[in-house]
Amino acid sequence: MFRPVSAALMVLFLLPPNAGREKEKRPDESILPGQGVLKCEDAKVVYSPFDETYAKRILLKDVSHSEDPPQNAPKEYSPERDMWKATVEPDTSKPGPWNTTIYFGSDANEEVWRLTLLDITDVGAKWLSEKLVFGQVWWGRIYATEFILDLQQHKFIYREMAQYGAKFEYCQ
Question: Is the pLDDT of residue 148 over 80?
């Protein structure tokens, strides 16, 4: 005796997996007609002038006579060890906003500068030379400010917004 339930299960096993469904969209098919998929070699970071609305969240201040980096903040030295930087990450186990602070100084003099990044935790900074630091401040997953800070002139000599969205889209 053949049961209807067994027959239905047999049919399901014999049919191709997409039978009875609408055609599924493949990643290489664009949403809009005539809009092709980006070639991977064409995916680029898009740079734009610095957005001044972010300036109030990136603060550089001389703190030579008022504070030093915390003792537990490890110092990372410049290539020739003339300067150091000490990054203080926020304690994200406590309620925000969370600020990241990077101190810059020299063992040869008392000068200390503090770069404070307000309400941000994703910051990277690395030495380019004895006086230049390259940094990235990530405002989200694909949007950042990139900067070069001149520690002898105590000012940013380069700041631009970087949009990494195309780097994360499907490409072929």
Answer: yes
